[in-house]
Design a protein that fits this description.
The protein is an alpha+beta fold. The protein contains 14 helices and 33 strands.
Length: 727
């Protein structure tokens, strides 16, 4: 009746996305189950069917409007009834109870749907009512009505920062190029440190998705290529992108007489917009997995894989990095031997390459779709193929979508919460699969873990995530639990003066402005040549900063009495402030507030004026951040990246507009991916130099070239030196 994977097609009135997805729901005893439905997203209209529609005029089971109030959150990988899904949630920024949780069987499929919903949200719905004015509205109502671009720009280039490569090649072995990390202090070629970061790079004949699935597996199939691996399991599932895993290693590949090693790792993964997968590891302590007899626990300072598609997705460049302490006595094993052990372990990339070559030899071309190795991982083509012998009637919570004055045409499309088919809530028996789930390894990882109920959990909090990490501390210098840090006494806060400026970049826990020429922005002819150019300066000057902590979110700092903003406002001068308040929620909420000021009239910068006077939907589609870790561990640099991103399409931003200021409250807790990245960065925080640039994206010829609003350089921030606000 149709392909089980998502398919996309083009129509004259815009993009169209359709395919099988799974509704992820909860029964009355709090357990999750899945229900297969065929979804069609045509423009801003989302429809669901129980089977592939025979025509465009067929009436759907449910339908809803996707407008500028809609956000999509990537929840990562989750096991439900012994079946692995890649989950994402649609939710209404003006009503968090109006949400829809969906699952795809493959990460690429989920990524395409997420991108399609991003684009539909940017376009909004015709003749729309602003969501900011009708905050109780459901998904059926639309956003601002302003014309927005039709795609989320994560930039075409691999990076938007000009920076020297941190790697130096030192050899080639078994078809793999070998690199060592170039230390800032080691530019003269001095001896490596005790545990250097080493990277192997090779090309594998497989799609990035297939390689990602192979690398994530902890099942028996891993022994087909990983000669170091004996067995492994998941100790704790933190969220869809993060877990704690335990690996036992064989000893036969280690030097004679060396005891067996094991690794207890925090594993984090994400997918980039270009199809690149990133898997990061570092060692941790965990009370559920103490050191075991017969094994010496090695310490992985940082490591992981980067799998980037090339050759139209048919091949992938695989980078494998390790910085590991094997916990060997120096009298027994020289450091040079430790290097050789690490290099030998990196040889797994060559084994992975040979595995995919063997697979290519055993499969005909018909087994591949768009260069992807499918291994017969297709879902049943018919809805009737799903067999259910256990049916439990679930509670029904009638969701009233008729509140307010809505005309008949709008009320035909209910909120997305109604797409859950309340009349059809059953448990699904796991569908028959054409491949062995236990061999794939994901089912065995996750089947013992109970799925989390997020029905009543607001998407803007990371408190549970922080609590789960309470007992974790990493076995290396620089990673500690923020909740265990020594706290200073609460002091009276003078907003705008809690983080000192230091142009010399020598004072710890300070900041200054970064060099604008480090960052690449859209040039005057970007629409024709797609070329980015070095930024020449900034529109605004950074005049103050705050580094705060509290037991709640701290909003509208610019409007508080005694702040630098209000002092200037009392003088009645022409100064205008642009405040960026980055909020990291949890049991303790950290806020980094950056204050930028301009003396010239807003009319002199039309794009900025449109941003300040525009609605939230317009602002979310334009505000852009370029991050850069100029000094720090490879694992942190890799997790943060150097690509520009539209912040409002990935995170919730709360806007506060005063007479002489606009403040952006960026909620890091509103994204699972962002929480994972920031939790990692916070662990290394006082060993990092972080640079950022902020700008408003230019989309038309009149708005180009772009200009930077401001930059910052954060020098070795210390969470213990943040100012605690009195309540």
């Amino acid at each position: 009746m149709g392909s089980s994977t998502a398919t996309s097609s083009s129509q004259s009135d815009g993009s169209r996305m359709e395919g099988w997805l799974y509704l992820i729901r909860f029964n009355r005893i709090g357990l999750q189950f899945s229900r297969k439905r065929y979804f069609v997203l045509d423009g801003h209209l989302l429809r669901s069917f129980k089977s592939v529609p025979s025509s465009n005029n067929q009436d759907p089971v449910r339908s809803a409007i996707v407008d500028s109030c809609v956000r999509v959150m990537d929840n990562g990988r989750e096991s439900i009834n012994r079946k692995v899904f890649f989950i994402f949630t649609l939710y209404n920024t003006s009503n968090h109870n109006d949400q829809l949780k969906l699952g795809a069987s493959r990460p690429e499929e989920a990524a395409r749907w997420i991108q399609s919903f991003h684009e539909a949200s940017l376009k909004g719905a015709p003749e729309a009512v602003g969501c900011s004015k009708r905050r109780w509205q459901s998904f059926r109502l639309s956003g601002s009505g302003r014309s927005h671009p039709t795609s989320v720009d994560w930039t075409l280039s691999s990076a938007d920062v000009i920076a020297p490569s941190p790697w130096t090649i030192f050899g080639c072995q078994n078809g793999l190029r070998l690199f060592k990390e170039a230390k800032d202090r080691d530019s003269s070629g001095k001896k490596w440190d005790d545990h250097p970061a080493i990277m192997a790079v090779g090309v594998v004949d497989g799609t990035s998705e297939a390689i990602f699935e192979t690398l994530m597996s902890l099942g028996p199939s891993r022994s087909e290529w990983d000669f170091c691996f004996y067995k492994g399991n998941v100790i704790e599932h933190l969220d869809g992108h993060t877990d704690i895993i335990h690996k036992h290693l064989y000893s036969d590949w280690l030097p004679w007489g060396m005891k067996r090693r094991d690794l207890l790792l925090r594993r984090y993964w994400r997918r980039e917009d270009d199809g690149t997968y990133v898997i990061l590891y570092h060692s941790v302590f965990h009370k559920k997995c103490p050191p075991q007899n017969g094994y010496v626990r090695a310490c992985l300072k940082s490591g992981g894989y980067v799998i980037s598609p090339v050759n139209k997705g048919k091949q992938s460049v695989v980078k494998h990095m390790l910085a590991i302490d094997w916990k060997c006595w120096r009298t027994y094993l020289k450091s040079s031997s430790a290097y050789s052990i690490t290099i030998r372990m990196l040889g797994r990339v060559a084994a992975l390459r040979e595995l995919f070559k063997a697979r290519l030899g055993n499969y005909s071309l018909s087994d591949y779709s768009s260069g992807e190795l499918t291994r017969n991982r297709r879902l049943p083509l018919k809805e009737g193929d799903i067999k259910s012998d256990t049916q439990i009637q679930a509670d029904e919570n009638d969701y009233d979508n008729s509140i307010g004055e809505v005309d008949q045409t709008e009320s035909e499309h209910a909120g997305l919460v109604s797409l859950n088919d309340p009349d059809d809530e059953f448990f699904d028996v796991p569908e028959p699969s054409d491949y062995d789930e236990s061999e794939n390894g994901w089912m065995t990882e996750c089947s013992h873990q109970r799925s989390q109920d997020i029905r009543h959990q607001k998407l803007s909090t990371a408190a549970n995530f922080v609590k789960r990490l309470h007992d974790l501390a990493v076995q290396k210098r620089g990673y500690v639990d923020l909740q265990e840090m020594v706290r200073e006494e609460s002091i009276t806060c003078s907003y705008g003066s809690t983080l000192p400026k230091d142009p010399t970049c020598t004072l710890p826990c300070s900041l200054t402005e970064a060099d604008p020429s480090t960052f690449l922005i859209r040039g005057e002819n970007y629409l024709e040549d797609h070329q980015k150019v070095k930024a020449k300066g900034t529109l605004m000057q950074m005049v103050a900063a705050d580094w705060l902590r509290s037991d709640k979110r701290e909003d509208d700092l610019g409007g508080r009495p005694g702040s630098i903003v209000q002092k200037y406002a009392a003088q009645g001068g022409p100064e205008f402030f642009f405040i960026i308040n980055i909020q990291v929620p949890g049991s303790t909420t950290y806020s980094l507030a950056l204050y930028y000021m301009m003396n010239t009239p807003l009319e002199d910068a039309p794009l900025l004026e449109s941003f300040i006077k525009g609605d939230d939907a317009f602002r979310n589609s334009r505000f852009k951040l370029i991050p850069y870790i100029s000094k720090g561990s490879w694992i942190v640099k890799q997790s943060v990246g150097k690509k520009a991103c539209l912040v409002g399409q990935a995170l919730e931003i709360h806007y506060f507009h005063g007479k002489n200021y606009l403040e952006l409250g960026i909620d890091i807790g509103s994204s699972t991916v962002a929480r994972g990245v920031v939790s990692l960065v916070l662990g290394y925080l006082n060993h990092l130099v972080i640079e950022m640039a902020f700008l408003v994206q230019g989309n038309s010829r009149e708005e180009l070239p772009e200009f930077l609003l401001g930059t910052c350089r954060l020098n070795h921030l210390d969470a213990s030196k943040s100012v605690c606000l009195k309540q």
